[in-house]
Amino acid sequence: MMSDPASTTSATAPPRRRLLRAAVLTAVSALLVGTWVTISDAAGPLTVKASADATVVSDQPDANQGALTDLTVRAASADKPTAVAYLKFVVSGLTAAPAGVQLQLFSYAQSSTGVQIWTAPSDWTEPAITWNTAPPAGTAMVANMANLTVNAYATADVSAAVTGNGTYTFVVTTTSTVSKKFASREVAATPPQLVINTGTPATVAATAGSGQSTAPGTAFAAPLVATVTDGAGAPVTNLPVTFTTPAAGASAAFTGGATAVSVTTDASGRATAPALTANAVAGTYTVTAAAEGTTGPAAFTLTNGTVTGPSPSPSPSPTGTVTTYTFKATADASLRSDQPDTNFGADYVLNTNAAPVITSLLRFAPAGMTGTVTSATLQLYSFSTSTLGVQVFTAPASWTESAVTYATAPAMGAQVGSGPNITVNTWASIDVTAAVTGNGTVGLGLTTARVGTNKVASRESASTPPTLVVKTVTGASPSPSPSASPSPSASPSPSASPVVSESASVSPTPSPGGTGTTVTAMGGAVQTVMVGRTFASALSARVTRPGGGTVANLPVTFTAPATDPTATFPGGAHEVTVTTDGGGVATSPPLQAGPRSGTYAVTATTDGAAQAAAFSLTNTDPTIVAAGDMACPIGKTPSVTTCQQMATSDLALSLHPDAVLPLGDDQYEKGTLEEFQQMYAPSWGASTRSAARCRATTNTGTSAAPSNRPAAPATSPTSATGRTRSTRAARRCASPGTAGTSATGTWSRWTASAASSADATRATRSISGSSPT
């Protein structure tokens, strides 16, 4: 049970307990003195790292503990001392008030209670601070640092306290009697720090869901999504965003009837609100999304369909059927002004730069679309971070990927899109609707105003090629003209998924599948993959009518959870809509597991469906087996401690590893073909999933591995001294059966058969520290 910090402290505190003006100051105290450290990019955040620290404990009131490697915060209990934490930072070099300031502490604890942040005077020093001499804390809490995660930085917004240059002290307390431990400055890699944003304040923007319309009393089709970015354009993670609907008049309510809900941003800075249902009042209104320390709030415009005056008798106005089409680039190439006659069509990246001028061309071939194009989005996977991003222009398609150069490239046309704030290892989505009118070739050009190279994946990067996502609508008709003369239905701003406004008294025409259809999971229903990798099978769902028979040309929406554990479709989307084929089957694009392990459900549903499909997916952490004693000379008799390669191999394989980490004794004595076939291949050669698959080349001959066994892992034959040489084989294998020569012997190359093979090879290199010549 949690104790009352105020009552506990007042009973035990020594005379100098001015500290206790803050009732929760019943925890271990710590003190940190900061020095100024700047990051090289003057426009980016500045960091103040701790230069001194100390912990003081109430049952040791005169003891100084400035040399400890951790800082402990804890509330009083029957058997543990009282506590507070102090942090001092010296801020200098600012030329203007900071746009935002974050206090970061590296946590060694997992806690939902977290800690609280207060201010205090700075009249203390690290070598002298004790429980009795600690300065008093203020009475107003500055911030609450909730939800501590073990071995991760916890962040609190202290912008209200840090207003410019000066010395600042923060007091850290907790109401929990369980100790909270943080890294002190003695841990050089993770010291306490202030991160000060000297640029533009963080912003919160409405990025999805605005402009929707629905009949009163019904749910909106898409959730509201707000994205928070800092002054440098990078996503702000783990920040609560509060969505609020109007208190009166036309409005809507979130799940459970709430008019306000707080959602924490994910790794991409996105906060996705729960389902939203319109109330019974017709009209257009604004839902806001606000986050502490940001400009804003963001505004979402929503409409509850309206009818005023006498009830009309119009013909139904059906909702249009929205179809999403995805097209990969069919050609792309970079163009460099400093190499005007060089072709870069085979590169794995597309570059842009303002000086020297580097631009890129892309070509897409949309085909098979029906209906009217309502939106087109260019998705690029970025290998760099830039607040200037890229600009997109139209471009003629009269060029060849393998031949185009800066000197021969066609001139670009009008600008059709802009993608500022690109972030490394994330997808950038750029609206290029103006460039896409229907089926036919689409040519685009990329430029930038940044003096510095922006890099995005080219189509040669098979898992992250440039992608054009086009949405069309079919079957939509204008709002009816009623026999009476009521005011017309409100016309919302267009959204990514167009929906025609409906009269409140009119039931829309059902979707092509009709009410009561069933969506059933077909392919990919139960799958497991390692975090960060793509699931082996796409998800497919079949739509059937109540009386039997499948439904073709029907939009089916696949939805993954908005928070981890989860997975994403191309572009980082958690939701994608795909149309069923002639057999009533909708197949999703590839799905990539998120960064956290766990099991979750992805659903597939369609308008009017009585039953949705559910796919059970699991993200797993990687399994890496570290083992040695991999092989022995021919004819040597196994003992308890030697020649146990078969037993070791069998044990490792029984764990189904994603990678094998060789620890030593992984040679077959002289590297002969006979030893490879008789000793190595039957044991470690069976490591198909974690070993590179190739031919072995030895000092005595070359031969393919036995056909009934996979080839050897990424380890090399011995040198002349019998010591194993670390190999970079899996990575450097250009073709089976080739070999390179070291100073002391021959090392073999193998061709990697899976990503896990390369992982194992990298791990081998990092342990052994040697390298081939």
Give a written overview of the molecule.
This protein has 773 residues and is mainly beta. Helix content is 6%, strand content 34%. The protein has 5 helices and 50 strands. The strands form 14 sheets. Strands 24, 25, 26, 28, 29, 31 and 32 form a 7-stranded antiparallel β-sheet that branches. A hairpin with a 2-residue loop joins strand 25 and strand 26 (357-364). The radius of gyration is 32 Å and the shape is globular.
In short:
6% of the residues lie in helices and 34% in strands.
What features would you highlight for this structure?
five-stranded antiparallel β-sheet; 773 residues; seven-stranded antiparallel β-sheet; disordered C terminus; 34% strand; disordered N terminus; mainly beta
Largest sheet: 7 strands, antiparallel
Helix content range: under 10%
Number of DSSP-assigned strands: 50
Which class of secondary structure composition applies to the elements? mainly beta
Please tell me what the overall shape is: globular
- Uncertain stretches of 5 or more adjacent residues: 1-43, 306-318, 478-514, 688-773
Cα-to-Cα separation, first versus last residue = 65 Å
Mean pLDDT: 73
Q: Compute the CA-based radius of gyration.
A: 32 Å
Beta-strand fraction estimate: 25-35%
Number of helices: 5
